[in-house]
Amino acid sequence: QVQLVESGGGSMQPGGSLRLSCAASSIFNLYSMGWYRQAPGKQRELVATVTSGESTNYADFVKGRFTISRDNAKNTVYLHMNNLRPEDVGVYYCNLITIRYVTNEYWGQGTQVTVSS
After folding, report:
1. pLDDT in the model for residue 38
2. Which residues, 6 or more positions from 73, have their beta carbon under 8 angstroms from its beta carbon?
3. Contact (CB, 8 A) for 18 and 10
């Protein structure tokens, strides 16, 4: 069973920056890693993903502000968040998808991001 451990959440003023990290206990047959978020009273939504081939995908509301990156040696994915806005508030979840004959999906426990002045 793969475990994902997130870190880096916290509180920041609008316009500030945070970096989220997600370390996987192991990765085999990686398809993608990514970040989703869930704001209070809303459904979980995709923020950004990166595939095993390093292709990235971003939600429109973070394009130009957030960057996803991966450190293969550390089994870690990062989300660099710049120019944070109040609407970026939420719990950010790490996601891992592996594919080998079957698809397996794993989630982290979530890390809170708060943006307020």
Report:
1. 98
2. none
3. yes
The tokens describing 110, both together, are 């979530």
Q: What percent of the chain has pLDDT over 90?
A: 93
Question: What is the tens place of the pLDDT at every residue in 77-103?
Answer: 999 999 999 999 999 999 999 999 999
Mean pLDDT (whole number) for 5-24 = 96
SS3 88: helix
Tokens 């508030």 found at: 89
Tokens of 94: 């790490």
Residue in the structure block whose two tokens are 């989220």: 20
Q: What is the DSSP pairing of strand 111-115 with strand 10-12?
A: parallel
Residue 27 CB coordination number (10 Å):
17
* Backbone dihedral angles phi then psi of residue 8, each to the nearest 5 degrees: 105, -5
